[in-house]
Structures are given as structure tokens and as C-alpha cells.
Amino acid sequence: MNILFIANELLQVCGISKHLYHLVDGLQKYYPNNEYFIITGGGNAIQKFQSIGVPVVVNENLIHQTRSITGYIKGIKEVYSFVKRNDIQIIHSHHHYSASIASKVSKLTLVQTIFTNHGILRKKGLLNHFNGDHIIAVNDKIKKEIARMSNKHVHLIRTGMSETSKTNKHTNERLRIISGGRMETEKGFEIFIKAIKEIPLHVRKKADFYIAGSGSLEEELKLLNNDLNTNISFLGEVVDFQQFLIGTDIFVMPTVAEYEGLPTVLIEAALAENLIISSDFFGHTDIINKGNGIIFNKGQVSQLAEKLIEAINNFEKYSWYIKNMKIKATDMFSQHKMINQTYNLYQQALKK
């Protein structure tokens, strides 16, 4: 079986890229007799994929942000040529733009198309957001929403994470509180910074605060940090973030995105035994409940500040939250489960 994955970009700080990495890495381990290829628009994580032996082809016509009618047509032609040269049986897309290109290629070939939808887009554009012979949703909320918005049959296959290092959890004299991801408006880092400002100084002194990642708002967020004197350390892009989280205590997910699915970084934090404090984003109920995490209303700075104060002052009280979340995340987000379910879907697709 020859399988082509198409991604908008491969980035170090990107949940979709992390999902794809664990998927391809696992498929190679469990089903090594197949051929796997990636076409992407670019990105700074290409070498990471190449290091596990996956051929990566860069084609800028697949980048959604710089799309044009000419680029769209060129993308179809170039993917079609790749499919024919490499006898591809399945195209598995991870962005609605690349899924649209794949659907056009499928009409010219016998290739089967699969699209993993990582989150619902708020506004509908010219392109169908649900192209594919089979649609995969990464959580139950997304599955139900796609079923409501389209007539597609949707498969629930959760993101799977590979085993982390067996290093024991660090013990810190001061709590280490971190948030991380792409520094864009919808990720809510401004909320995190402003909430820290509202924490009384005598409480704030019990913890160190960090933000990991990069993005278009990085300099603006650093200026806000300086203006508010919140003393947050900006770490930039952390290559092995899951391993880094073994050394932190509390992970904050301040996202304000309307249709956030289930951020990969939250799964990483849960597996690394961090106490989770999260906004009530669209897909949060898929993993967070009253007994394993702390929830605040999306966009509410003062409410997040209150939750942080409570967690800092009574951190030991939440040790069972951390244990419950680790157990749930380990079971729900198994790489082995994701690989087997995805491969079974590939086989099902080829039987048509």
C-alpha cells in the first residue's frame, strides 16, 4: 500500500504537525511494508519528518494562506503527477485546502481520499470543508458537528501520542506554570498574561511562569509582559515539548478559539502529569471533567486569575486530578489505537 499525506505546513509549534508526526512514525513501526510519502507547503519541521525516514516533497502551491486560482490548479496537476509516478492508493489530507486538491485528483485516478478534520472552521469559503471518501474527526464534538453540517459518514479516531521518556516527574521548589502553542489571537495568551498580573504578588512569588512557542503576536505579547511587569519567561519553540513538560507543574490552556477541537499540547501536558487549567473551549469535554482538570470561562481574565491563585495555594490538593487525567489521557490517546484504527480505515477504503 502506498500512502500520500498532504499537509498545509509542517511546523514545530503546530498540533496538526505533531498529530501527523505520531501517525506516520507509528505507521512505519507497526506497518513497515508500506510506502509513506508527504507533500507539504513548507515549514520548519520538515527535517524532523525526514529524520524518521519519510520522503517529504515541498510544494508551495499547497499553502492555504497564499492560495490563488492558479496555485490551486497547479497543485492539482502536481499532486496528480506524484500520485501517478508513485502508484499512490490513498491520499490522507490534514487541511481542508489540501483535501479539496486531493478530491480533484481522485476524480482523475482510482486513489481513495481520507481527510482528518482537526477543528471546525467558523466561516464557510468557496471550498467545501469536508472533502474525502472518508472523514476522520479527532474528537466526539467535532464528529457531531461535521455530521450536523454535512451528509458525510464520520469516523472518530483520536490523536495518539507515542510513549514519553520514563524520566520521573521533577520536583520543583517553586511551581512552574506554563502555557504554549502558536502565538496567534485565538490561542488567548493575552488572557494568560493579564491573569498573572491580577495574581497578588505574595502568591505570584510562589511560582515561575513560562510561555513556549512562536507566532505573529510574539513581540506584542513580550511587550505586554514587560508593560504589566509579569516576569513571564518566553521560551521560543521547544523542540521536544512533551519531554520539557515533565519539568513543569501546571499547564494553562487559555484558548479563545470558537471551534477549538482538542489541542495536542493539552494531551502532551496531561501525559506529562501537569495539572490542567483550561478555558471551556469547544472540545474540552472530550477529556476534561470535574475530577481531572480546572475549567474557566473562555476569555475571562479574572476567573483564570482566581483559578491560578487557588491552584498555587493548594497545589497538593489537586494531585488526584493529575493522576486521573494521566490515566484518562493514556487510555484515550494511545498511539497504538490511533494507528490500528487508521490502518483499518485504509483497508476499508481500498475494498470499495
UniProtKB/TrEMBL annotation:
An MF annotation (GO) of this entry: transferase activity
InterPro entries referenced in this protein's UniProt entry, alphabetically: Glyco_trans_1 (IPR001296), Glyco_trans_4-like_N (IPR028098)
Keyword entries, A-Z: Transferase
A Pfam cross-reference name: Glyco_transf_4
Coiled coil: none
Domain Glycosyltransferase subfamily 4-like N-terminal: 15-160
Protein name: Glycosyl transferase, group 1
Organism: hydrocarbon metagenome
